[in-house]
Specification:
By secondary structure, the chain is mainly alpha-helical. The protein is built from 11 helices and 2 strands. It has one domain. The chain has a two-stranded antiparallel ribbon with strand order 1-2. Helix 2 packs antiparallel against helix 3.
Length: 277
């Protein structure tokens, strides 16, 4: 395969990854990393480095649109970014000392768990007793709806922060945005509206990925040629995904994406267990 063919295929895959990452809040790494590893045989560490670049592009492209539309809760995002970034740094350092086969296996398991987490039924938006931190940190806000802005509160902030710490470790270790776990924490635990959870996750994953990318870059795991192709595809894809999400949430896309995650996850597990690359 020529360099031109490699670049074009990577651009197309990154475009799809950026679109799905912005649409679902999961980050584009769940597509980019297995694509580079399984299709082109790229070492998983270099694939993770490239996918972190894709996640940064996805977050940057989608976040500006979501913030301007009033969906993103910036206060919640910045608060939860602290434990997430700390976890991402730890995961990135840990990845340097783990074997490629072990990483592939953990990646596959994380993909399947992400799919299961992101497809859990959505709980009611309005929580019960208000969390003291909810008021002290001024986290309540409103979510745009066809009927006008809808107010909401935030519950169980400490528990949500704990889940974010684990999501950060996965992000740094595996080169994924770990968006499913972030959406799970905000939607299921902290009881934010689903669109707020998704858009705030998009806002957060770029910062988390940037922290991890610095470690991968310092260790030489980001190849400029691959990262550039990923960046040029993921950015327009994320902008397109942001446009679609603002208009409507497609259950068909979520189902299709879940099927892709399971297929890729199983393949990565097989690759890691058998040592196939």
């Amino acid at each position: 395969m020529t360099l031109l063919q490699f670049t074009l295929l990577t651009l197309v895959a990154s475009l799809a990854a950026g679109f799905l990452g912005a649409l679902t809040g999961l980050g584009g790494g769940v597509v980019i990393t297995p694509f580079l590893t399984l299709v082109f045989g790229v070492d998983i560490r270099y694939a993770i480095g490239a996918s972190l670049v894709a996640i940064i592009a996805t977050s940057s492209g989608a976040a500006s649109s979501f913030v301007s539309q009033g969906f993103t809760n910036i206060r919640v995002g910045m608060l939860l970014e602290v434990p997430t970034t700390l976890g991402a740094l730890g995961g990135a350092f840990l990845a340097s000392y783990l074997g490629a086969d072990w990483l592939a296996t953990v990646f596959g398991v994380a993909l399947i768990l992400s799919m299961l987490a992101s497809n859990r039924p959505v709980r009611p938006v309005t929580p019960g007793p208000p969390d003291p931190l909810n008021i002290r940190l001024r986290l309540p806000s409103t979510c745009p709806t066809p009927a006008g802005p809808e107010p909401y509160r935030v519950a169980r902030v400490p528990l949500g922060a704990g889940v974010m710490l684990g999501a950060g470790v996965l992000s740094g270790l595996l080169g994924i945005g770990a968006g499913a776990f972030k959406v799970l924490a905000m939607d299921q635990i902290m009881r934010l509206p689903f669109k707020v959870s998704t858009t705030t996750s998009n806002f957060m994953i770029g910062v988390t990925a940037a922290a991890s990318a610095g470690v991968y870059l310092s260790r030489g795991y980001i190849e400029p040629a691959v990262a550039m192709a990923v960046l040029l595809g993921a950015l327009p894809g994320s902008l397109l995904g942001a446009r679609v999400l603002v208009r409507a949430t497609s259950r068909t896309v979520r189902l299709a994406f879940s099927v892709v995650i399971v297929l890729v996850g199983v393949q990565m597990i097989i690759k890691g267990v058998t040592g196939g690359g």
